[in-house]
Amino acid sequence: MTFKRYNPDRINVLSSGGGTQSNAMIVLISQGKLPKPDLIVMVDTEREMSNVFDYQREHILPLCEAMGIEYHIIKKSEYTEHDLTTKNDDERVLPPFFIVNDDTGEISKMPGFCSGKWKTEPFQRHINKLYGEKYATKRGVEVWLGITIDEAQRVKVTGGKWNRVYPLVEMMLTRQMCIQIVEDAGLPTPPRSHCWMCPNRHNNDWADMQANHPEEFAKAVEFEKNLIAKWPQYRVNRSADPLGVQTFVDDGRGTQLDLIQFCDTGMCFT
Ligand code: SF4
User: Fold this and answer.
1) What residues make up the domain containing 120?
2) What single DSSP character describes residue 113?
3) Which residues lie below 8 Å from residue 63, measured CB to CB, with a gap of 6+?
4) What's phi and psi for 126, nearest 5 deg?
5) Can you tell me the distance from the alpha carbon of 95 to that of 90, in angstroms, rounded to the nearest whole number?
6) Angle 45-50-55 (CA atoms, 0-180°, nearest 5)?
7) 248 Cβ partners below 8 Å, 6+ apart?
8) What mean pLDDT is predicted for residues 18-43?
9) How far is CA 222 from CA 216, 218, 249, in A?
């Protein structure tokens, strides 16, 4: 076992993004290469790709059941009213959309807060509700995140009640090695996990969605139409052309850079 930071005195919760690295952690648990957490929690942003849930239902939930580990998939709307904007007076826009400057045509990107509001906060509220806030605070929670060494810049040292830990970094695993671990266990290649309207997607992700998931691509097109109707300068894709007029091709770029800059919770794309 190479998970030296494992602390059984605290509550151990694997935060599943539903994607490659989270699935690899669960496979490693089933192989005895990682210890059993107390619980696995995935927050459904209610804009997740449906193939991620199909995969969880068909392959991961039965595995967890066989290991006797509870796996809770919770909907964000059960724990927060924040959606595209915060529900406070400031109505802050949460996803990191692109903005076209009317005068110069320059394209910039907004900071992203959706992962924190849609995932981290509901996750923490669920744990507090389940264990009782006082008990959870007293014992402390180890939040296992599926970051790999190729994304090491996403690692944040936290401590305190919600201490983030990174078993896959300790095991020196890359995302590609995680795919191999899952496939070697006899499971199909895991899908990439992210929202169907996520501005952190790169063109290879859009190309895949346009070709292989047309219903969700159509939802993203409709989503962006409504977005532009309300905020004419906002876009979902970095080219700033509306999604509906584009034919995407795989440009070979990864998503790492945007995730480091615009999504620091470690709960997305894992
Ligand atoms: S996948 Fe993208 S849109 Fe969804 S919560 Fe994460 S950063 Fe936000």
Assistant:
1) 11-262
2) -
3) 26, 27, 30
4) -65, -45
5) 15
6) 110
7) 203, 206, 207, 210
8) 97
9) 10, 6, 20
CA 97 / ligand 1 centre spacing (Å): 11
pLDDT of amino acid 66: 97
State the total domains in the chain. Answer: 1
**Which of 44, 82, 97, 114 has most ligand 1 atoms within 8 Å of CB, for mutation?**
114
Residue 16 counted as domain residue: yes
Mean pLDDT, the chain, whole residue set: 92
Long-range contacts of 133-136 (CB under 8 A, 24+ apart): 136/11, 136/161
* Cβ(200) – ligand 1 distance below 6 Å: yes
pLDDT of residue 253: 64
| Position 255 confidence tier, pLDDT thresholds 50, 70, 90 | low
Residue 30 · residue 63 · CB < 8 Å: yes
Residue 1 has pLDDT above 80, yes or no: no
Give me the sign of the Cα torsion angle 227, 213, 48, 189: negative
Residue 227's CATH number? 3.40.50
Position 210 pLDDT exceeds 70? yes
Bridge-based pairing state of the strands 141-144 and 11-15: parallel
- Is 259 or 229 the better-scoring residue by pLDDT? 229
Cα 63–Cα 65–Cα 66 angle in degrees, nearest 5: 65
Whether the CB-CB separation of 26 and 63 falls below 8 Å is answered with yes
CB of 95 shorter than 6 A to ligand 1: yes
